[in-house]
Amino acid sequence: MPLPPAILPPLRPGAVIHGPGSHGVDTLLDGFSAELKRRGFRVGGLVQRNHGPGDDCAERMELVDVATGHAYDITQRLGRESQSCRVDPTGVAEASQAIRNAVASGVDLLVVNKFAGLESHGDGLSDEMLAAIAEGIPVLTSVGSRYLNEWQTATGGFCDLLSPVADALWRWWGPQRMYQDLMQGVADADVRRVVTGDKWVLVETADGLGVAARQAPAAEGAAVGAAEDTAQRWTGRGLRDLAAMAAQSWDPLEIAVGVAALNAHYNRPDVTGVPGNGLDLFASVEGRVVVIGGFPQLARRLPRAKVIDMNPQEGEYPEAACDWLLPGADAVAITASAFANRTLPRLLRVSAGAEVAMVGPGTPLTPRLFDYGIQSLAGFVAIDREAVVRTIAGGGGSRDFHPYGRMVTLHRPPHS
């Protein structure tokens, strides 16, 4: 019986809380929505942009439709001595059409510049905002601290209060969305080969070859040629189509093929980074280091690390220990298999505040992952493709195909 497709978890409305003045928050929401839109997410709604003083020494304010770029002037020109609110309700009402259009199209995210004076009295954009929440559309807005009680009343407390920093917005957006994010970044291409070995699978295009570990080994005693027959399931499908399985399927083999397709795009021969083993990143860490998954030569490289594994050996911890060992850890190294078996989002949430690295040949080498709480990525780039194909088709593991490529490490830039 086929499994239902994976669906994204719902998001409670997110409210960025700020003190007097909102210029920094306006820029934060503008930048976040622009970045998600650049990555392929469907983003709608309104962001606010303020421009230098006009003739009456007041800033000109406008609401910009995220989807179309159309700007609505919302400034009341009351004269330089006026102390009244300078927001023009007529301009806000006109701009509200952008929100209604976004809700009707079922966007991935609705951004509403703020819940402020007008909204606190049930006017402004409050009706459109609450209608979107009722439709289950993720809503992100900002709320001045003076209007926090009114916001809580309007939403019935069904919301997440966010700090005015980018990392808080990405944590709210959630690591489950990294799969869709990576899939959307894949440029479509013809797939040359899909090989499903006993331990690993690979996807190859003209530009690259990606690998991923099988989460369920091939059936013992499988007939000769069964791997080739299985791979025929994906014959004729494009790279982006295969990559979508990493985001949408629950079948372990389909997910592995989807991850390999992602890596065929991101782990191309032209990717540049630091050579070496990803575990060496934490060799000098003095605090608690936790490693998820067994790695070759782990005891030599990180002798003080606490190791968690699904099949723990002597001195290692079971999977249930994640909730005890990861909170408060200084550094966490996570096997790339956690990305493929869908446990990575939970591990990232529990590891919040730690320096996190994803390590292993199946790691996608893309900066898109940095915003989801990962600081370093160590993955595999195939050089001798035919040798990698022969090795995986013959049932070999990562140690066997490792000599036919290079390990590359990417680091999150310090300022991001």
The major sheet is characterized as: 7 strands, mixed
In round numbers, the mean pLDDT is: 90
The CATH C-level class name of the largest domain: Alpha Beta
Contiguous uncertain segments of 5+ residues? 81-85
Structure overview:
By secondary structure, the protein is of the alpha/beta class. The chain has two domains: 14-173, P-loop containing nucleotide triphosphate hydrolases (Rossmann fold, 3-Layer(aba) Sandwich), CATH 3.40.50.300; 177-415, Rossmann fold (3-Layer(aba) Sandwich). 32% of the residues lie in helices and 21% in strands. It is built from 16 helices and 17 strands. It has a seven-stranded mixed β-sheet with strand order 4-3-2-5-6-1-7, sandwiched between helices. Helix 11 links the parallel strand 12 (289-292) and strand 13. Helix 2 (89-105) packs parallel to helix 4, helix 7 (178-184) packs antiparallel against helix 9 (239-248) and helix 9 crosses helix 10 (252-266). The radius of gyration is 25 Å and the shape is elongated. Residues 81-85 have low confidence and may be disordered.
Give the structure's gist in a few sentences:
It is built from 16 helices and 17 strands. The protein has helices at residues 23-38, 89-105, 117-120, 126-134, 148-155, 166-173, 178-184, 226-231, 239-248, 252-266, 298-301, 322-325, 337-340, 344-350, 385-393, 398-401, and strands at 14-18, 43-53, 59-65, 71-73, 109-112, 139-144, 160-162, 191-196, 200-205, 209-213, 274-275, 289-292, 306-308, 331-335, 355-359, 376-382, 405-411. It holds the Pfam family DUF4213.
